[in-house]
Amino acid sequence: MKTDETNAIANYTQLYRDLYRDNYVAIQYNFVQFFVEHLADVSRVFGADLQSVLILAIVGQNDLQVRIRAGMTGDGALPGEGLSGRTNASSIADICGIPRETVRRKLDAMAKRGWLSRDDAGLWHIAIDGAKMVPVRRELIELDQRGAERTARLFGQAHALAVENAKKKKL
User: Fold this and answer.
1) How many C-beta atoms surround the C-beta of residue 123 within 10 A?
2) Which of 40, 133, 139, 160 pairs as cysteine with 75 (C-beta 3.0–4.6 A)?
3) Could you state, in order of their start, the residue ranges of all structural domains in the chain?
4) How confident is the model at residue 98, as a pLDDT?
5) What does R_g of the chain's alpha carbons equal in angstroms?
6) What is the DSSP string of the chain?
7) What count of other Cβ atoms lies within 10 Å of the Cβ of residue 148?
8) Residue 116 DSSP class
9) The pTM is what?
10) pLDDT higher for 134 or 90?
11) Average pLDDT, the chain
């Protein structure tokens, strides 16, 4: 990350720390409202299997990190071989605290759905089928859209509170 970007993130991080401190009740309410709505939505979509959600999120984060580093903004195949974020079942189990055998079973189930793939080294990654949008996102697009709306609302609420907080401090 560039120094200017790092400084901007640090400045905004401090701004939001101050905002959280100065408006704890409102920020906490808005965050918990977002979190509960999203978690309940995800739970419904995944048939209450939140372990699969967590495992998929860990594999997906590795993939997204590689896409960010490659400057990508959309789905589809990554440019170049070996760029996909790959991880193994043991690492996933260590991160989330789910037993390794449970992780393996859930990874296999998601692979059967076409969401994940396993390479020859036994590393897992988001499956890509050559289409513009990867299969897991295509199948979960409505959940993704609802999540984006909730996130936008949360950020909008936080921004409105930040503006009000700044006005109060200038008075």
Assistant:
1) 17
2) 133
3) 1-45+143-171, 48-139
4) 97
5) 19
6) --HHHHHHHHHHHHHHHHHHHHTHHHHHHHHHHHHHHHHHHHHHHTTT-HHHHHHHHHHHHHHHHHHHHTT--S-SPPSSTT-S--B-HHHHHHHH---HHHHHHHHHHHHHTTSEEE-TTS-EEE---SSSS-HHHHHTHHHHHHHHHHHHHHHHHHHHHHHHHHHHHH-
7) 10
8) E
9) 0.83
10) 90
11) 88
Asked whether the predicted pLDDT for residue 171 surpasses 60, the reply is no
H or E element that contains 26? helix 24-45
Residue 85 clears pLDDT 70, i.e. is over it: yes
Distance CA 91, CA 95 (A): 6
HSE-CB at 116 with a 13 A cutoff on CA atoms is 30
Nearest by Cα to 124 from 81, 95, 85: 85
pLDDT for 79 beyond 70: no
Q: Nearest 5 degrees, angle CA 28-CA 29-CA 32?
A: 80
- For domain 48-139, the CATH architecture is Orthogonal Bundle (1.10)
Instruction: Name the token pair of 16.
Output: 């939001």
Question: Residue type for 112, please?
Answer: K
